[in-house]
């Protein structure tokens, strides 16, 4: 059971590292590698079919959640809820700043 936890944590760390460095297309390469390495390690430790598939699925989910968390934390400061699509400022403005165009 310890090896399953180690694989899940390692997969999450790989997802975090991928999210900090690469774009989402890197998951196309990283996910099969995680699945193959996890399958080899689980086979070495004599996991059964159901247990092995479950651990591999959890490893893939953990890596994708790690990627999502890392990329969100990396880009969260650049996104403002007051940004408008058309470039015009919204009705909510900074206090004590008058309107320039009336």
SSE pattern: HHH
The whole-number mean of residue pLDDT values reads 83
Cα-based radius of gyration, to the nearest Å: 21 Å
Query: Could you describe the largest sheet, including whether it forms a barrel?
Result: none
Instruction: Classify the beta-strand content into a percent band.
Output: under 5%
Helicity level: 55-70%
Short description:
This protein has helices at 2-21, 26-44, 49-75.
Describe the structure.
The chain has 102 residues and is mainly α. Helix content is 65%, strand content 0%. It contains three helices and no strands. The protein is elongated. The N and C termini lie far apart (68 Å). The model has no long low-confidence stretch (mean pLDDT 83).
List the helices and strands and how they pair.
Blueprint: H1 2-21, H2 26-44, H3 49-75
Helix pairs in contact: 1-2, 1-3, 2-3
List keywords for this structure.
about 100 residues, 3 helices
């Amino acid at each position: 059971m310890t090896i399953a936890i180690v694989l899940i944590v390692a997969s999450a760390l790989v997802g975090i590292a991928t999210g900090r460095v690469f774009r989402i297309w890197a998951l196309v390469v990283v996910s099969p590698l995680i699945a193959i390495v996890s399958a080899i390690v689980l086979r070495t430790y004599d996991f059964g079919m159901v247990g092995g598939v479950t651990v591999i699925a959890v490893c893939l989910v953990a890596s994708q959640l790690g990627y999502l968390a890392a990329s969100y934390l990396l880009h969260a400061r650049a996104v403002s809820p007051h940004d408008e699509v058309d470039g015009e400022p919204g009705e909510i403005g900074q206090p004590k700043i008058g309107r320039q165009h009336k």
